[in-house]
Amino acid sequence: MKLKTKNLLTLAELTPKEFVGLLNDSIKLKKELKKNGNKPILKNKTLAMIFQKPSTRTRVSFEIGMYQLGGHAVNLSSNDTQLSRGESVEDTAKTLSRYANCIMARVYDHELLEKLSQHTTIPVINGLSDSFHPCQILADFLTIKEKKKKIRGLKIAWIGDGNNVCNSMIYGAALAGSSMSIATPKEFQPDKKVVKEAQRSTDIELTLDPFQAVNNADVVVTDTYSSIHNNDPKRIKKFLPKYQVNPKLMRSAKDNAIFLHCLPAKREQEVTSSVIDGSQSVVWDEAENRLHTQKALLSALIHAERI
Ligand code: CP
Ligand code: NVA
Predict the structure, then answer these.
(1) 156: closest CA among 168, 144, 139, 164?
(2) pLDDT at residue 229 tops 80
(3) Cα–Cα dist 277/244, whole Å
(4) Residue 223 appears among annotated catalytic residues
């Protein structure tokens, strides 16, 4: 799969065809891995990973993904680079472009990623910023495709905080041709510009009522109320008990609805243990699918020969 975009920073860079193509490549790579292991299509290719925030899934899935495709990943905690001592983003971008074939960065400020990508000659992947988490949404839609056998014409309910993951999910729904109903407290709605953009191609409804959002939903999604950039304990009070995904809320969705959460989760806050550890939850497949979708993405951006 060849992509027109050099970078993946939000998900909005993709066309619907490219989005579906990446999911199909992910399925091929997943099957191949489980059968005989992957071919070394990224042999001698390197990924530089920059982390300003902690990570379990993103770090491990990118590093192991590169390894499984014959390449290598270098982990750079931002405190260990000269960025932390004031070297400019521009100079860092130019330097890394001379060593690596791709950069994946997890940052606070989304603008840092934009700046980085403007000064690199190599692709930049957003491994989460305060505004977006596109890699998560690729994995989410692969999971939806596997469980629902389609990604088009579904209703996705988002409950809780209209955060970075929600913003990218809105773009994902638009690319997939599915609708979204988003129930959040008024002050925690997703980015207005993102909503408006996505509304050109699909139905995106904003509501204060979680039961309205889950009504007839095929997929129910939530995320922590306290993302790394906004972990004020007072926030949590504004969400509970109304915006918790619990068995009563799940019963108001379709009987065969699935439950997604990007993880890490705070049990008994945004979701009860009974839901996240229950039969409708697909969170472990979702976490696994980070590996497969990111391998498809890396292969596409680094222009691997074939999958
Ligand atoms: N979902 C996700 O990105 O997890 P990590 O923060 O562990 O990478
Ligand atoms: N919204 C969360 C996602 C973590 C993967 C955060 O930004 O911390």
Answers:
(1) 144
(2) no
(3) 15
(4) yes
Mean pLDDT of 116-145: 98
Question: For ligand 1, is residue 56 a contact (CB within 6 Å)?
Answer: yes
Residues constituting the chain: 307
Give residue-wise pLDDT tens across range 8-23: 999 999 999 999 999 9
Instruction: Please tell me whether residue 208 adopts helix, strand or coil conformation.
Output: coil
Q: Encoding tokens for residue 49? A: 């990973």
- pLDDT for residue 141: 99
Encoded amino acid at 20, one letter: V
| Domains of the chain, CATH where assigned | 11-133+289-304 (3.40.50.1370), 136-286 (3.40.50.1370)
For residue 263, the CA-to-ligand 1 centroid distance in Å is 6
- Measured distance CA(35)–CA(274) in Å, rounded: 34
Tell me the chain's radius of gyration from C-alpha atoms. Answer: 19
Residues in a beta bridge with 46: 72
The long-range contacts involving 198-204, CB below 8 angstroms and separated by at least 24 positions, are: 198/170, 198/171, 198/173, 198/174, 200/174, 201/174, 201/177, 202/173, 202/174, 202/177, 202/178, 203/179, 204/170, 204/173, 204/174, 204/179, 204/180
Closest to 72 in 3D by CA, of 60, 84, 64, 80? 64
177-214 confidence digits (pLDDT tens): 999 999 999 999 999 999 999 999 999 999 999 999 99
Give the distance (Å) from ligand 1 centre to CA of residue 23. 19
* Model pLDDT, residue 80: 84
Q: 179-211 b/e with 16+ CB inside 10 Å = b? A: bbbbbbbeebbbbeebbebbeeebebebeeebe
- Mean pLDDT, the chain, integer: 96
| Helix (H/G/I), strand (E/B), else coil: 40 | coil
Nearest CA to ligand 1 atom 6: 55
